[in-house]
Specification:
Elements lengths: L4 H25 L5 H20 L15 H41 L1
Helix pairs in contact: 1-2, 1-3, 2-3
Length: about 110
């Protein structure tokens, strides 16, 4: 579970690195992608990653006064951010999966 914006950004970067350094070169080497398609995919991935990071400006919409104690406020805020960060990560992962699905389909077709 992602608990901070910093961890989420690092995780997004790791996913992007995996696609850039492993998935795309392997697909090009195996003949599943042309170099033009690989360049297009990498460009889309870079844009997607940038958008995902820009959408991480998330604010907790309640003040401490709305809670019985400071501890209740901290707990609610922590749960809110965990849910928001995990939602953002799952959305990013789904978009990346859409980008690499054609590679997976081409690999299945070549078997």
């Amino acid at each position: 579970m992602i608990t901070s914006k910093r961890d989420l950004k690092k995780h997004i970067d790791r996913i992007e690195d995996e696609v850039v350094q492993v998935v795309v070169p392997a697909a090009v080497y195996a003949g599943l992608l042309t170099e033009e398609k690989a360049t297009e995919l990498l460009s889309k991935l870079a844009g997607l990653t940038q958008q995902a990071k820009e959408r991480l400006s998330i604010n907790f919409d309640k003040s401490p006064d709305a809670f019985d104690s400071h501890q209740a406020f901290k707990l609610a805020r922590t749960q809110y951010f965990k849910a928001a960060y995990n939602k953002a990560l799952s959305e990013y992962e789904a978009e990346v999966q859409k980008l690499i699905d054609p590679i997976n389909e081409a690999a299945k077709a070549n078997k």
